[in-house]
Amino acid sequence: MVTLNFEKREKNLKGRQLRNKGIIPAVLYGKHLEESVCLQLPVHEAERFLQYNFIGSKVEIVIGKEKYMAVLKEATYTPGANKLEHLSFQALVAGEVTRSVARVIISGRERIREGVLIHMLDEITYSALPADFVDRVEVDVSQMKPGDVLTVEELDIAKNEKIELVTPPDSVVVTVTVPKVYTEDEEAEAADVEEPALVSDKEED
């Protein structure tokens, strides 16, 4: 479990002011905390953490002499610019079942020679004790063939007795399809189809 050292931040400081100084605002919340804790972290440390961790990853948060076991719940980015703006963490309690997510990581994509791989599900939601959290599910698709479908219930996370799935077990994770190949006659027929005329609600005088 990764450890991050935070500093408390003043609530009246705006996020833009902090980001201009190379600092990312964050928050730690949880029903067992008296109130949410406003935090701040150098942007380079936040970005380094996100290189190897995901939504659903556990982290030890250190604030001075205080330590909290937490899970990353949200990472907010600037629309279009993809710049990190804010991090949200939920404090965890050992022995208390909590809902979280595991990221689906695909490997072996380059070894598929036939068909087109379609990645349908990015993350799997589940409930478990913090000690049993899983933040990623690796899926090897190298042996998949056209027509193959892989569902959640076929993954290791679904067979883990310490985890209760929230995502429906029959949800499709990945599938391999065969692109339709058109004949010359079909292409010609499609080209000859007359486009429908546009209908205006105003008639010309």
Tertiary shape: globular
CATH class of the largest domain: Mainly Beta
Largest sheet: 6 strands, mixed, barrel
Structural class: mainly beta
Mean pLDDT: 89
Output the radius of gyration.
Answer: 24 Å
Return the CATH architecture of the largest domain. Answer: Beta Barrel
Low-confidence stretches: none
Give the strand order of the largest sheet, numbering strands 1, 2, ... along the chain. 1-3-2-6-5-4
- How much of the sequence is in beta strands? 35-45%
User: Could you state the order of secondary-structure elements as H and E?
Assistant: EHEEHEEEEEEEEHEEH
The N- and C-terminal alpha carbons lie at a distance of 74 Å
Whole-number total of structural domains: 2
Number of helices: 4
What is the number of beta strands? 13
CATH superfamily (homologous) name of the largest domain: Ribosomal Protein L25, Chain P
> Would you tell me which CATH topology of the largest domain applies?
Ribosomal Protein L25, Chain P
Q: Work out the helicity level.
A: 10-25%
What would the keywords be for this entry?
RNA Polymerase Alpha Subunit, Chain A, domain 2, single chain, 4-stranded mixed β-sheet, 6-stranded mixed barrel, mainly beta, 205 residues, 2 domains, 4 helices, Ribosomal Protein L25, Chain P, globular
